[in-house]
Every structure is written in C-alpha cells, then in structure tokens.
Amino acid sequence: MKLQRKNMLRASALGALVVSGALVLTACGSDDNTKNDAGASGKPSAAVGDIKCDDAKGKLLASGSSAQKNAVDLWVKAYMAACPGIEVNYKSSSSGEGIVAFNQGTVGFAGSDSALKPDAVEESKKICTGGQGIDLPMVGGPIAIGFNVAGVDKLVLDAPTLAAIFNDKIKKWDDEAIKKLNPGVTLPSTAIQAFHRSEDSGTTENLGKYLKAAAPEAWTYEAAKKWPAPGGQAASGSAGVASQVKAVDGAIGYFELSYASSQSIKTVDVATGAATPVKATGENASKAIAAAKISGTGDDLALKLDYATKAEGAYPIVLVTYEVVCDKGNKAETLPAVKSFLNYTASDAGQKILLDNGYAPIPAEINAKVREVIAKLA
C-alpha cells in the first residue's frame, strides 16, 4: 500500500511538471521568457468554457512577433487544454520573419507589430487565392525602455534624450541632458551600452515611429523594421535584448514589458510633456491605444496611433500586434482552426489575459470589429 501511494504521488508530481512546462513547449520559438501557469499576475489564464473548438483539428502553425510571445503562450495553453484535437505551434521570431512565412504559405497566420506594407499585401495575393492578407489588431502593450545602471533605481528620459542615446550622440550616463531630467539622482560616468534588435522587427519600427513623432529634430530616420541608427549593439529578439540589458552594467534597450517584468529589469519613466512622467504599464499603454483610429480599408483593421500624445497617464511608446490572415483563400484544412483560435484570442476572456499580464487589450469598439471580420474569414 505504501509503495502504491508513493507511485501515485510521483505520478501526480510528474503530471504537474508536464503541465508547468507546456507553456514553454507550445511556443517553440527562439525567445525564452517563461511564466508560471497563471501568468505574471498569478491569476488563471482562462476558463475552458470561454473557448469554442468548433471544427478545429490537426496542427495550426503560426509565427512572427516576439513581442506578443508571452500572450500567445498563455492563449495556446488555455486553448489546447480546451481543444485537445488541435495543436497550435507559434514560433516566436520577428515580425519580418512572420510576414515572410505567411507570404510563403507555411503558416496559418502571422504576428506582426506593424501593419502590412503595400508590397507585402500584393505578395500575399499569391497565397490568399481570391483575397489578400489583412491586419487584425489583437495585442496592445507598452514598449518598455529597460536600463541597468549600477546605483540607479529610477530614471526619467524624454524623446529627444532617448533619440540621442540610441543615435550614439549621448555616450555617458552622467550627461547633462540626463542629469537635467533626473534632479537629485546620482548618475555615474559609466559608458552607455545601447542595445537594439538585430533582425527586422516591428518593435523597432514602433520605437522609431515614437522617436520620429516626439523628437523629429533628434531622430531623422524614417521608421522601419531594420534598425537605422549608427552605433549600439545588436541582439536577437526581444528576449535577446532583454538578456543583454539584464547582464551589462550601463545598458539600455527596448522590449515588450513582460520581458522586463519577468527578469526584474528596471524601466524608464517617459517625460511626455504631461504633468508627471509616465510609467510603462499595461493600463497606461491602454490610455494611449484607446485614442487609436482605424486606418485600414475594408476588412483590414490597421490602426493609426498617436505616438506624440501628451495626455495625462498615457504611455506613448506603444505597439499593437496584428494577426495577419487571408480575408479569403485560407487553406481549407487550417481555416477552422484559425477562426476558432482567433475567436478565442479576441474574446473577452482572451483579451482579459492581456491586462492581467502587462499587455493592453484592444479597445472594445475596435475589438468588436475584429470579431466580425474573423467570422467572415473564408
């Protein structure tokens, strides 16, 4: 009897270990930034009753944005628990790589932190028979500016100063421009080690949009997925940049907030011209994203964001990750899974996961349109 009980306890422990590891295994991506089963907040990720499996079956492949990786991990875990007949595999790489995979027809959908460019839409028509690729906003959130400066626990920067740092113009942490924004803070003369993404990245493009809008004289580059400025050091994926910032004294870099939260990386408060510098939080990002307008046409729901906002409490360095799908011409074998999975991610329960884990839900009015478009996918 004792031996039987011991074996039962061992099996129970092994089962718990398998469940706790599922979040890592389902992502199959290059970034490694895991959380516990409930996410950063410790709250359950979703109730099974919120998910409708419909006719979904087989394997659904997707890839792209590393910024949404942690949200997708939680969604996949809840979805696969409710729908054991379908395997969802999201490869976290970059927005650029996700779009390439989508236009090669190797994934059911792609994640991108910037909307499709006209040439990518044109290319998608070869895969989307009778249709084209469209953008469905699904994940919002702050792009945190993480820093690691010995002896400095709180740091305020504004757009012109950030532009000068990432443009290799400000080289020391005790530069007068930084000191002026941080009265009473003892700043060391440590050299600034600025890290950026090595691959095409929608996160890079959104940071560029912010710098271009809020500091046009200091940041003269057009926003693009490829890092445009001289100097700095490159790292792969949001996880790679976060790891470098975590490890290197004097470092600064940019990545989605949950990478900072999970690794206890300090983040910059941004001076926007509002009365108080704004912290990088999901709630503060939501205040900025709430003012977004749909700029896409037809069923394309690309958004226009105000990166130069000075609204109180609105964190301006934000991104919206789109799930890129065919409006028509989706593969028959994966269409039910695409619609079922995205219906869940756009549901109230799916969007609640975002706020519980440092992201920002898509505004309700826009999210309602996302659901309408998902229902029409063919």
Summarize the structure.
With 378 residues, the chain is of the alpha/beta class. 38% of the residues lie in helices and 18% in strands.
Strand content of the residues, in percent? 15-25%
Treating each run of at least 4 consecutive H or I residues as one helix, how many helices? 13
Net shape: elongated
Parts with pLDDT < 50 across at least 5 consecutive residues: 1-47
By CATH, the architecture of the largest domain is named 3-Layer(aba) Sandwich
Q: Tell me the total number of β-strands.
A: 13
Give the total of domains.
2
Using the coordinates above, name the CATH class of the largest domain.
Alpha Beta
CATH superfamily of the largest domain: Periplasmic binding protein-like II
Task: Determine the CATH topology of the largest domain.
Answer: D-Maltodextrin-Binding Protein, domain 2
Mean pLDDT: 88
Biggest sheet descriptor: 9 strands, mixed
N→C terminal distance: 58 Å
Question: What does the secondary structure layout of this molecule look like, with pairings?
Answer:
Layout: H1 2-27, E1 58-64, H2 69-82, E2 86-92, H3 95-103, E3 109-112, H4 118-124, E4 133-148, E5 156-158, H5 159-166, H6 176-181, E6 193-197, H7 202-214, E7 233-235, H8 237-247, E8 251-256, H9 257-263, E9 266-267, E10 269-271, H10 282-289, E11 293-294, E12 303-304, E13 318-326, H11 335-345, H12 348-356, H13 364-376
Parallel strand pairs: 1-2, 1-3, 5-10, 6-7, 6-8
Antiparallel strand pairs: 3-13, 4-8, 4-9, 4-13, 11-12
